[in-house]
Amino acid sequence: MLIELRDVEKTVPSGSGRLWILRQTCLEIERGDFVTIMGPSGAGKSTLLGIVGMLDHDWEGEFRFLEHDVHRMKPKARVSLNREHIGFVFQQYHLLDDLTVYENLDIPLSYRNVPKRERQSLVADALDRFGIVAKKDLYPHQLSGGQQQLVGVARALVAKPALILADEPTGNLHSEQATEIMELFRELNRRGTTILQVSHSETNASYGNRIVRLFDGWLKDE
Prior knowledge:
globular; 35% helix; 10 strands; Rossmann fold; 7 helices; six-stranded mixed β-sheet; alpha/beta; 222 residues; single chain
């Protein structure tokens, strides 16, 4: 089992009380799954993704990831586990504007203390794999939206993570670019990468093998 959530709950302050974002959330994801979280805006989809990605530490319940009891770990240890095993793809790309494409790909490897020579090899492989060698010295503002998202996917995968988390990964792309990204996800999944994506798109969901739906913080596994 890669991910196991048991009765995970999340609230935030609201007036004189608390607002429920997630309620008694239970979810299991096996290695090699391709799961889509769907639901209306405000249902808690991105919050759930943030918890699984160990970006959000303010929640209750049990969470196991690769046999680690995340709910018992300190935030610093969670961040270390995240960097070691998880890659993120965001709708807004989140590339660093003052770094080149090459440098953006190098960043996650530097976080993991990968030796420089090995980093150079891994970045070169990623540039070649994603067909962006010619873009390596360009800055994000010099790329189209589709190219930026391709770099975002390459950055998420450069360290060969066990899990890819994608939050509306095609939301800012036209249909041809969106299809390219989703076909890429499907191929990565076929090669063994586990993917958990948030999407409003039934088309995007069709690339995976499973859908879970969130309504007002309650999760229903289909």
